[in-house]
Design goal:
Elements lengths: L9 E5 L5 H12 L3 E7 L23 E2 L2 H5 L4 E4 L3 H14 L2 E4 L6 H10 L4 E4 L5 H16 L5 E8 L9 H14 L3 H4 E2 L14 E7 L5 E8 L4 E8 L3 H14 L5 E3 L1 H4 L5
Parallel strand pairs: 1-2, 1-4, 2-3, 4-5, 5-6, 6-12, 7-9, 8-9
Antiparallel strand pairs: 7-10, 10-11
Helix pairs in contact: 1-8, 3-4, 5-6
Length: 275
């Protein structure tokens, strides 16, 4: 292989590197010939600090886990972050300072946090999505079509299930599905969403969009949007059996960001659906 034919390698840092998603990302990066792990970040109280980032996977990456943001981002072109809002926003400031692109899979941001991300995207390129799965983002495109076609005469319910450790509800993916369907159907999600039902609720209000949440076990992530009409119902479902799907989408997002200087993108843009 000549020097000219050697593929460009995307230099990637991973936040929350000793967590479940962090380990999955490290494994995916190690398996991708065009990607290279150059940084592994974790909390200051992580027992993995100082260890090789691939130790739990039986891999020797040559990258030590660090709580030092400057050290962890040194040489990185992109940071992949699936942590929690407070941590992600701290990483955002560091990435902006060091001109490192971001792929953000973290959910649960408040309005102020989202505003900070939008502001940072004027200086660095960011892909942010509540679900990095390629399959889920194809489902979002299908839901746009279904929401438009089934806007009248169908009740809409969104059901999601995740593992017992998930801290926000409904999931960011379920909320995104609700936003897509509501917009396509000409509804206002803030006005029409029903977040919980208990006791004597009365009949279902026409035009509402219901959400149901399940938490238990080690469920990676299941989402169903139900369109219930008279005499028929349509269910559009996506089930994740492995976090590897999120890692594959994240690496696709890193490749998409290569060469971009700024901007806020979602997975629909990464997949060429627009947005």
């Amino acid at each position: 292989m000549t020097a000219e034919s050697v593929p460009t390698r995307h230099r990637i840092a991973v936040a929350g590197s000793s967590g479940r998603m962090g380990r999955t990302l490290i494994e995916a990066i190690a398996a991708a010939p065009d990607c290279q792990l150059v940084g592994a970040l974790d909390r200051a109280d992580s027992p993995a600090l100082g260890q090789d980032a691939g130790a739990a996977l039986g891999l020797a990456t040559g990258v030590s886990v660090s709580a030092d943001l400057a050290l962890g981002l040194q040489g990185a072109q992109a940071l992949i972050d699936f942590t929690r809002p407070q941590g992600t926003l701290a990483h955002l400031d560091a990435c902006r300072q060091h001109r490192v692109a971001m792929v953000i899979g973290t959910t649960g941001f408040d309005a102020a946090g989202l505003a900070r991300i939008r502001a940072a995207s004027a200086h660095i390129p960011i892909v942010m999505a509540p679900n990095m799965s390629i399959g889920v983002n194809v489902v979002l495109k299908l839901l746009e079509q279904a929401g438009r076609a089934l806007a009248e005469g169908y009740d809409i319910e969104i059901i999601e299930a995740h593992h017992r450790h998930k801290v926000d509800a409904p999931s960011g993916t379920a909320l995104k599905m609700g936003e897509v369907v509501a917009q396509a159907a000409g509804r206002d999600l803030e006005r029409d969403a029903v977040w919980a039902r208990h006791g004597h609720t009365g009949e279902r209000e026409p035009g509402t969009i219901g959400f149901s949440v399940i938490r238990g076990g080690d469920i990676v992530g299941d989402h169903t949007v139900l369109f219930a009409g008279t005499g028929e119902r349509i269910e559009i479902t996506h089930k994740s059996s492995s976090r590897a799907t999120y890692a594959a989408g994240s690496l696709r997002a890193v490749r998409f960001l290569a060469g971009k200087s700024s901007g806020l993108y979602d997975m629909q843009a990464v997949l060429g659906f627009g947005g």
